[in-house]
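> call design_seq(struct)
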């Protein structure tokens, strides 16, 4: 049985670079840089990167094993209570957002005028809440993806609107999303932000909830 697991593990690792853009060493480094140390947190973070649960769990086990393979490096390894998934295939490769330079984002944030420092602060704190976030520009919005789009910031001089789907986590803090110059909003809900004090623990909770949906 261990030899069968070893073969599945070798196939999984061999396909990582082609399927995800990172080889095993790259994912070990990415996990370390994510800042997550608890097993469930690492698995949740890997699922946000596009892994199915079973493969995210297996990759976390390899990371917990010091980056060493569980079965392929030791054919006498005992079977654990977490057998490998039946279908040794990852999701199709995740297509990252179109590349956007920091200059493009800063140019868009200038639309916020006096609220620009707050807009920059919001983006920094979103990056802290969800370290895997990729920022890009799309029309009048700064979009946030991890890897799928989960939020968008509309900078304007009167107020900053952060669009997302917060679900039940939104509670009384989120509002129904407003149109942007008569265009449909990118998500169903929004936060109206005009004070740095609103970037608090509850804000981090909402951002993580949106990224996990």
């Amino acid at each position: 049985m261990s030899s069968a697991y070893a073969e599945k593990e070798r196939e999984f690792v061999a396909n990582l670079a082609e399927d995800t853009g990172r080889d095993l060493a790259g994912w070990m480094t990415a996990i370390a840089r994510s800042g997550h140390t608890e097993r469930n947190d690492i698995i949740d973070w890997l699922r946000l990167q596009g892994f199915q649960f079973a493969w995210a769990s297996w990759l976390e086990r390899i990371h917990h094993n010091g980056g060493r393979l569980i079965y392929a490096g030791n054919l006498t390894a005992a079977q654990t209570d977490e057998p490998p998934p039946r279908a040794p295939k990852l999701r199709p490769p995740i297509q990252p957002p179109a590349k956007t330079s920091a200059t493009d984002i800063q140019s868009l944030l200038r639309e916020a005028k006096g609220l620009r420092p707050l807009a920059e602060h919001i983006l920094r704190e979103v990056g802290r809440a969800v370290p895997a976030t990729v920022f890009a520009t799309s029309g009048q919005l700064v979009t946030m993806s991890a890897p799928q789009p989960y939020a968008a910031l509309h900078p304007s001089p009167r107020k900053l609107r952060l669009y997302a789907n917060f679900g039940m986590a939104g509670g009384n803090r989120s509002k129904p999303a407003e149109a942007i110059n008569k265009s449909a909003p990118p998500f169903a809900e929004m936060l109206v932000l005009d004070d740095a004090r609103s970037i608090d623990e509850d804000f981090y909770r909402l951002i993580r909830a949106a990224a996990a949906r």
